[in-house]
Amino acid sequence: VKQSILSLFYSALFCLIINCAFAQQKDTSVIEADTVTRERPKKPDSLKEKFYPRAFRIGTDLIAIGKTQFNDTYSGWEGNVEVDCGYYYPNVEVGHWGRSYDLHYGDYGHYENSGNYYRVGMDINILRKDPDRNTLFFGVRYGHSSFSESATLNVDGGDFGTAQKILHNSAVTAGWGEITSGLRVKIWKEFWLGYTARMKFLPSVKGDTELKSFDIPGYGMNGSGFYWGFNYQIFYRIPLKKKK
Amino acid sequence: VRFLLTSIIALLLSGCLTQPDCVATTSNVVQFRFRDAVSNKLKKVLFSSILISSDGTVLEKTLTETDNVVDSLSTVALPVNSFVKETTYTFTYGVTTNSVPSTKTGSVTVTYDLQNIIVSIDCGPYIYVSNLVMPSYTFEKEPKLLSKQLSTSETVNIELIL
């Protein structure tokens, strides 16, 4: 719980910093507009609305890197590629995650998993005319994961005593949906920093024969209802040749 | 933008509620009740013994002080062995036929599905028992399977016709 509160505190702090930076950037442009009479030439809206790839943004999740270094229960990474198509940003995310938990300090046993996942989806940018290609977006994803998991459990059988069960799911697959929202803000030259908040739902698991899947790589804890995810990401933008 | 950020932070805070609590709504006990074969009414039964056998282990149901006071049982909850998929219950009970008391024995075997679940890191593992089936019995009349789901409530699973 303490870890969750700290994580949320840092998340909130980061959001505020990004928000302030973004607001400051807008204020500067207003001052410039007041003092300079010559207006920046506007591009026709019809040109901006066209759906064609303007650039790639390739990124990685900083939280996954940090957790791998400082959290004993997690190891993993996540890479992101998104294509700037004007209002729309098709994207692909791939990653690896492994978990290792002692259940209630080991009293109930141990659980671990390892697997790869990908997500494909589309974001819609609602900052339509930002010259720095900053984005504030909403989107959807489909996620898919392939993984294995094993557990050594100390199980209480009531009147029939207790027993240690060694369980293994060797080839589990899972799919789920996500609704996302986030920001990308230009920080320096071709580098953007941002976050993605995810509401994950409807996990569908196959292959968990011995043990109901506890933790799904790319999704989180398996259960009914929603699960939440959050990424801090850094991106490098690779512009493409402008369409004539 | 500020409204959106506030909304996003609120959503993130709600993520604190994703950890389940340790309260189980299911159980590993089968609830029995008894019906008179002649009058077809629910009745109390005086048991000499109730044995629970599974996987080579035999347990005897301990009758509580309350059971001894009323001298008979209207319902009884008996555990299944959640390490294997089959448990047999053997009841030895008293009957009176033409004013002559005697003792009879009958048994019923149940099978079920088992699923190993880790509830949470703090709550640990749990074996979920479901889909109760009654493949065999030795009573004169066939027992009725009323509910396949084991629960912590007073839901009756099997009715014995005695």
Short description:
The complex is a heterodimer of chains A (244) and B (162). With 244 residues, chain A is an alpha+beta fold. Chain A has helices spanning 2-35, 45-49, 62-70; strands at 55-61, 74-84, 88-103, 109-125, 135-156, 162-188, 191-206, 215-216, 220-221, 226-239.
Number of strands of chain A: 10
Question: What share of the residues of chain B lie within helices?
Answer: 10-25%
The share of residues in extended strands of chain A comes to: over 45%
Number of strands of chain B: 9
Largest sheet of chain B: 5 strands, antiparallel
Helical stretch tally of chain A: 3
Physical arrangement of strands within the biggest beta sheet of chain A: 1-2-3-4-5-6-7-10
How big is the Rg of chain B? 22 Å
State the largest interface.
A-B, 45 and 37 residues
Give the helices and strands of chain A as they follow along the chain: HHEHEEEEEEEEE
Shape call of chain B:
elongated
Estimated helix fraction of chain A: 10-25%
Instruction: Encode the helix/strand succession of chain B as letters.
Output: HEEEHEEEEEE
The largest pleated sheet of chain A is described as: 8 strands, antiparallel, barrel
Q: Treating each run of at least 4 consecutive H or I residues as one helix, how many helices of chain B?
A: 2
Q: What is the spatial order of strands in the main beta sheet of chain B?
A: 3-2-5-6-7
Give the integer mean of the pLDDT values of chain A.
Answer: 84
List low-pLDDT spans of chain A. 19-34
**How does the helix and strand content of chain A classify structurally?**
alpha+beta
**Alpha-carbon Rg of chain A, integer:** 22 Å
Task: Give a structural overview.
The complex is a heterodimer of chains A (244) and B (162). Chain A has three helices and ten strands; from the N terminus they run ααβαβββββββββ. Chain A has 244 residues and is an alpha+beta fold. Chain B is mainly beta. Chain B starts with a helix and ends with a strand. The interface between A and B is large, with 45 and 37 residues.
